[in-house]
């Protein structure tokens, strides 16, 4: 069955957790004991109805403050599709949590309060979704019941958000008016908004087409593990295991191993269930080659005439996740696919105001939850694609050398020697980067 990963984002108190609770409740995606527990908690607090947000807000601090702090993952399925939901925080001080939850999403649901319209946080979440390369965005205009299900209110929000989204690299935006509290247009169509002729949110999630979102052109296979059983039955067996990051690999294909540049052909493609004639992402396989080549963890198998850039230098957009700021000259561990190298911050090019898209070139550091363009140099060559073409081979994380904490998430903008920036207008450059 097809799987859709999606995240929710929006301003504080826009109803993200309530929306997810409504999706789970109306689609019969929760167990009886879960429902009984939140009913009991709701009664104890004196609520007039069941607080569905309690299904996702699991931390005590979240329940006390009424906001989402941590990323909560929920799983449910319908006869048509399986879903993994990442309920991400809306507050600006938890931007790093939103980036973590949305980084693997196929779709983002951005909630907008119908009473307040498009706020700075709504624009910020749309920018981050675009930065992370999420191909589909649903703008769920929530709390329509509190504005009398007014069509003009919905139209004004749609126009306002569309004007902002035109500055971003997002090509598929869908607007749905909903009331998460009462279930209007969440699982079933609302009788209170006859003027809306589009799908309910669940119907859209079940039918949105995502197969074309995967990169099936640029064949990329980062080697994660070398399989050498060294048994009598498999005495000469040498398989290279990992997850296909992009493209399609077929038995008999000519391939090149990077960074060595050695060429060979694919002898077999195997999985636990048996041999395959072809494999595509995100399948994990073992590839056997016709020739014995010196291959290690972190090397990459690809096509001879379609290769990533092999470089010691890169420019990337980085979301900083640590209390200690990123500064020029800082040293970190960089993990890219299955390759781990040492990295040095060569230059902080600019910091982005995620609310206005303005670039601050005078910035000397990136603080917690801030995003900026950074130039890095690494100790060993990396096989890099731009993030816009491949989210796996274009993404990486930065790790603190002493604590081994993840301190940054990066998206490759350019691999190789630095490019000369020709744009004078900082905002125009930021839009291009997004």
Mean pLDDT: 86
CA radius of gyration: 24 Å
**Range of helix content:** 10-25%
Shape descriptor reads globular
Number of strands: 25
Low-confidence stretches: 59-69, 422-434
CATH class of the largest domain: Alpha Beta
Please name the CATH architecture of the largest domain. 3-Layer(aba) Sandwich
Distance from first to last alpha carbon: 33 Å
Work out the helix count: 8
Largest sheet: 8 strands, antiparallel
**Domain module count:** 3
Structural class of the helices, strands and pairings? alpha+beta
CATH fold field value of the largest domain: Rossmann fold
Strand proportion, as a percent range, falls in 25-35%
CATH level-four homologous superfamily name of the largest domain: P-loop containing nucleotide triphosphate hydrolases
Molecular structure report:
There is one protein chain. The chain is an alpha+beta fold and 434 residues long. The chain has 3 domains: 210 residues, Rossmann fold, CATH 3.40.50; 83 residues, Translation factors (Elongation Factor Tu (Ef-tu), domain 3), CATH 2.40.30.10; 125 residues, Beta Barrel (Elongation Factor Tu (Ef-tu), domain 3), CATH 2.40.30.10. It has 8 helices and 25 strands. Strands 7, 8, 9, 11, 12, 13, 15 and 16 form an 8-stranded antiparallel sheet that branches. A 6-stranded mixed sheet has the order 2-3-1-4-5-6, sandwiched between helices. A hairpin with a 2-residue loop joins strand 19 and strand 20. The longest helix is centred in the middle third of the chain and has 15 residues. It is globular, with a radius of gyration of 24 Å. The C terminus is likely disordered.
